[in-house]
Specification:
mainly alpha; 2 domains; 7 helices; rod-shaped; binds zinc ion
Length: 172
């Protein structure tokens, strides 16, 4: 007895892939032989399958890796210049702090040095003429400057040392 049921989509695909079990396969083959509609269905699945398998796999452009690496380099460069700018600012602050400390110190050392070496005093005196306006103020504020320098300088030194040694692990 011939089974006149048309093939389902699943049956058509399984028939194409030779995935049907023996009794089912016999029924499908018998039906297909006499049914142009189901032959067309199977052929359409065959065409679809061939079209899919011959479709080129989307590949990244040839310069994909180069472009990505260039982007990473750009970011690294931006970070490096940020780091350099931060270093420059912190360095300038550190230098001015050291200068302020030396300035305060010079005002304090000058009287003691004057009894030791007249040559040194002459040099110091020339320097002091230019700083006569500021040195009373600086020497009056010497303690405050030292305290501020310590308070600012210690975290500053830590920040500088951390900036000076970039950790590559963070870049990723
Ligand atoms: Zn049919």
């Amino acid at each position: 007895m011939i089974d006149h049921r048309h093939l389902t989509d699943d049956e058509a695909q399984l028939h194409l892939e030779s995935g049907l079990a023996a009794p089912e396969r016999a029924r499908v083959e018998t039906h297909l032989a006499g049914c142009p509609s189901c032959q067309a269905l199977v052929m359409s699945f065959e065409a679809l399958s061939e079209a899919l398998s011959s479709m080129p796999v989307a590949e990244p452009p040839a310069d994909f890796t180069a472009v990505v690496m260039a982007r990473i380099d750009e970011r690294e460069l931006a970070r490096a210049s940020e780091r350099q700018a931060a270093l420059a600012v912190l360095g300038a602050v550190a230098v001015s702090l050291v200068a302020a400390l030396a300035f305060a110190g010079q005002a304090a050392w000058a009287p003691a040095l004057s009894s030791v070496s007249t040559g040194a005093v002459k040099a110091l005196h020339a320097f002091r003429i230019t700083s006569d306006v500021l040195s009373p103020l600086v020497s009056a504020l010497r303690l405050q400057i030292i305290v501020v320098a310590a308070v600012v300088g210690i975290p500053l030194t830590l920040a500088l040392s951390r900036l000076a040694t970039p950790r590559h692990g963070q870049a990723a």
